Amino acid sequence: MREKSTTLYLGPQHPGITGNMMVKLQLEGDTIVKATTHVGYLHRAFEKLIERRNWMQSTTILCRFCVPEPDPPEAAFALAVEQIEGREVPERGQYLRSLVLELARLQSFMLWYAGQSGSAGLYTVGQWSVGDRNYVLDLFEELTGGRIYHMYIWPGGVRRDIPEGFEDKVLRTMDYIEKRIDDYDRMMFDSAIFQKRAQGVGVITKEKAMEWGVVGAPLRGCGIGHDVRKDNPYDAYDKLDFEMGIFEGGDVWARARVRQFEIRQTISMIRQLIQNLPSGDYLNKMPNPMKWTIPAGSAYGKVESVRGEFGFHVVSDGSDKPRRAHARGPAYVHGVSLLEDVLVGENLADVSFIMNSLGVCPPEIER
Amino acid sequence: MYNDKNAQTIVDYIKNFTRKNSLFMLAYGTGCGAIELPATLTSRYDAERLGVRGAATPRQADLLLITGYLSTKTLKRVIRVYEQMQDPKYVIGFGSCTINGGMYWDSYNTIKLLDKYIPVDVYINGCMPRPESVIEGFKELQRLIAAGKADGATKYKENLDWYRNNQKKVLKNWPLVEYNW
Amino acid sequence: METSYTKEEILAQQLQAAFEHLITEVVRKDTVFAFAPKEQVSSILLYAKEKLGYISLSHLSCVDWLESGELELVYIIWSPETKVNLFVKTRIDRENPVMENTDMIWRQINTYQREIREMFGVEFPGFIGEKEFILEDWEDAPPMRRDFDTLEYVNDTFFEREGREDKQDVRERIANRSGEEIPDFAKKYSRE
To answer: pLDDT tens across A97-148, in order?
Structure first.
């Protein structure tokens, strides 16, 4: 008896998808035969809005490009503008920028723990890690004034200096979180259910990775080691001591091991940044922000976020408004066309699992 | 004795008490504001002590939380989801984008006033509202239910033509069946 | 006398030697621009990918130059050995924009071409992709072009909340209500 073929809309309203997008599946029994992605539910026309605002007014909407981790878009825009104008950032400003980027990476990793284990059925890890993530958001609130959207990184430096007693608070929070991560790992990675579900699922081979242009943690989970912080270093990353996590296999298990390795590297980087913070200026102040003009030119600024390489192509024509600011998020390649390829042949129950592992984040696909 | 005036208010009181203390929230993250919801529902700012927990499908939920802006593509799906929910149902508008368009006031793809398309009971303002504001919004909804004033659903049924005209002005391919009652 | 060239200058010289009508420019560290006519672009990209090691595509972007009546396409590619970004720029006509399809070189360029076709109206004949990508039921002009006015579209289609038509200053209203005086340095905006 032949199995009947069904069409299923894993639609915008679903407890298992990572954001507001739709995947249209064609199934035979329990196996996926064809998958199509539909995006566009979160389109706000950011790039048209940036063309109507000044250079300084654009920094207020840049952080909304990527909702779980809002600092890489600001940093990429600032790098591109500094390249066009030739503006130098003082050393203390560079260290503070790297500190904020690493803290944003840490809280995004903790949100990933909740998503990945929640779609496998281990709900306790999510409750613990989201509860502890609040301590990192408290640090952000003391430094910048907001829990989620900071608007802290400006072209030329950072917005304000760190308050008194901040360094001790950061070190104490890092000590606490380091102990708790061992608990999450024991619950998630030593569990037989997670291991059996994750090994051999959602495989990307090395040739497919190079052909499709995969970046970030999925690329390092295939055995190829590229990281923007090591290849084109920016800010204070050439003075820090850290390693990339490279694991073989290309399946969900290897990508999870990559993130498990990198979260400990992030904690050690934050400690190094705090202990070696130089003194001096934190901002290379721009002239009157309402009348600031930038000479004509174009540049491409690249930053490493949790999911991969975030790039910003900025074009200026000499006036006080940007001509074109076009962003490219890492989920642009992973979430639209690669997902349609990886899902063929998998079970229906693994769709949400694979989406969490590839890091599909719809706000940065359609901006 | 059962037609006594005091007995009616006791029935209303018990009805509102049970409804306000077990609000099931639909799991739908329509915009940016959905990033503060995991923090509201876990251990520090526990919203589950008020009775709020997540529900998976529209037929099992009675609270729709519109977290942030709505593009016209999402508005089509939200109207369908809202009409699939069963009475009694409530809507909370979350963030300043539902109040007057927020920072996307000149964008061609987002709607500016949520109240013209579906009825809203409570607004929470902020960009992004803190978890304490979200809990204050839930408590305000509970106060409205206890006083018997949370009647967005009946307003929608009575003025359906007006809502439909506004919705059709923005959505071009109308997806739903026209009701004939 | 031997002069040693930087890696950006070596790249510029290699490209100049292989293609005639090419103008290259070493702009700053790790960035090289190449201005090419429309028909040469896919040969340059294939040469850079196969022979010079530029195997990774970072971005494909489009800029609207309304004053000169042209659209400019920018291909940004990157090499893992020399770590230099190469920008290949070309200009096409704005009234009838047609560009060659390059998705046999990199498969992921399909998504970028779909978006540029929807937002700017540029045709890439020969590639397979559905028409609607981000917008739904859109019947007007391509929205990212500079002659599409979004504020006018918003005022025609959407409603605005009443009570702010006169667009008064909030600080003055609050100060008038409580009877206090705004200091001098806060009175003048630098909005002009």
So the answer is: 999 999 999 999 999 999 999 888 888 999 999 999 999 999 999 999 889 9
Tokens (6 digits) for B3 = 């037609």
Q: Give the Cα separation of B23 and B21 in Å (integer).
A: 6
Q: φ, ψ for residue A231 (rounded to 5)? A: -80, -55
Which residues 6+ apart lie within 8 Å of C52 measured at CB?
A: C11, C14, C79
- DSSP letter at C64 equals E
Cα Rg, chain C, nearest whole Å: 25
d(CA C136, CA A366): 13
Kindly list the partner chains of chain A, i.e. chains with 3 or more CB atom pairs below 8 Å.
B, C
pLDDT tens column, A348-361: 989 999 999 998 88
Omega of the bond leading into B128 within 30 degrees of 0 (cis) = yes
DSSP A238: G
Interface confidence, given as ipTM, is 0.89
Encode A294-356 in three state secondary structure.
CCCEEEEEEEECCCCEEEEEEEECCCCCCCEEEEECCHHHHHHHHHHHHCCCCEHHHHHHHHH
Neighbours of chain B (3+ CB pairs under 8 A): A, C
Q: What is the DSSP letter of C39?
A: G
Decide if C145 contacts C65 (C-beta within 8 A): no
Q: Which residues of B touch C137 (CB under 8 A)?
A: 171-173
Whether A286 and chain B come into contact, CB under 8 Å, resolves to no
Q: What's the CA gap between A140 and A161, in Å, rounded? A: 13
